Amino acid sequence: MSKIALITGANRGLGRNTALSIARHGGDVVVAYRGNAGQAAGVVQEIQALGRKALALQLDVSNLAAFPDFAARLRAGLQETWGRESFDHLVNNAGHGEFTPFAQTSEAQFDGIFDVHVKGVYFLTQTLLPLIADGGRIVNFSTGLTRFSAAGFSAYAAAKGAVEVLTRYMAQELGARGITVNAVAPGAIETDFGGGLVRDNKDLNAKYAGLTALGRVGLPDDIGPMVASLLSDDNRWVTGQRIEVSGGQAI
């Protein structure tokens, strides 16, 4: 029986790359997306072209009140598509950034970041626990910015720091069910995240490349396959860990 992974924010960027990487490793995927149904449908088609099954479901991870309805739709989709009432892997990827200096960051910006990256991860995972199979995997996306710092990322990095602490607690409390929980922390990556901040700004790209041992910034293909490998049975004994995938940034 194939494994099923649910990935939030899977319609673009690292989420899309992770979804396709999982499919290439023989897994099926639930593509959760916030607002671009066309993008999500495109990812589903790409996964199906790889010979795997996929399902797209709308989800706004900042809207906690909608989580019970999402769980109900997910349960129905699992039954209809796979004949199952559970899935195996949860990848909490969805998110956004606020690139504002500490002194100018507003309460609304701060709350927006924490609502998505902390409360969203906490309560979505809690809501979906009855649907996650024993022996499953949870991967929470963090950031290299919890280890090194860069001006303008204070709220974002603080939220991801909370995610890393939460990861350890989840690993401890879910271990009795054989569920592993780890945090993956990318360094600077060329995606549309932050409006293509690293991808499109040549000076910033070169700056981060110069701080990286392997001499360049990351690409989505550097991250998705690593997550897919972490979900495999070969990594069943890895849990409660922060795993940085940065090419050696700022070491």
How would the blueprint of this fold be written?
Blueprint: E1 4-7, H1 13-24, E2 28-33, H2 37-49, E3 54-58, H3 67-82, E4 87-92, H4 107-128, E5 132-141, H5 154-174, E6 180-186, H6 193-200, H7 202-210, H8 220-230, E7 242-245
Parallel strand pairs: 1-2, 1-4, 2-3, 4-5, 5-6, 6-7
What can you see in these coordinates?
The protein is an alpha/beta fold. It has a single domain (4-189, 220-245), classed as Rossmann fold, CATH 3.40.50.720. Helix content is 45%, strand content 17%. The chain contains 8 helices and 7 strands. The chain has helices at residues 13-24, 37-49, 67-82, 107-128, 154-174, 193-200, 202-210, 220-230; strands at residues 4-7, 28-33, 54-58, 87-92, 132-141, 180-186, 242-245. A 7-stranded parallel sheet has the order 3-2-1-4-5-6-7, with helices on both faces. Helix 1 packs across helix 8 (220-230), helix 4 packs parallel to helix 5 (154-174) and helix 6 crosses helix 7. The chain is globular and about 50 Å long.
Offer a quick outline of the entry.
The longest helix is centred in the middle third of the chain and has 22 residues, at 107-128. With 251 residues, the protein is an alpha/beta fold.
List keywords for this structure.
single chain; 251 residues; alpha/beta; Rossmann fold; 7-stranded parallel sheet; 8 helices; 7 strands
Q: What's the CATH class, please?
A: Alpha Beta
Q: What's the helical proportion of residues? A: 40-55%
Write the CATH architecture name: 3-Layer(aba) Sandwich
Q: Strand order across the biggest sheet?
A: 3-2-1-4-5-6-7
Global Rg:
17 Å
User: What is the succession of H and E elements?
Assistant: EHEHEHEHEHEHHHE
Can you tell me the number of structural domains? 1
Oligomer: single chain
The assigned structural class equals: alpha/beta
Question: What is the CATH topology descriptor?
Answer: Rossmann fold
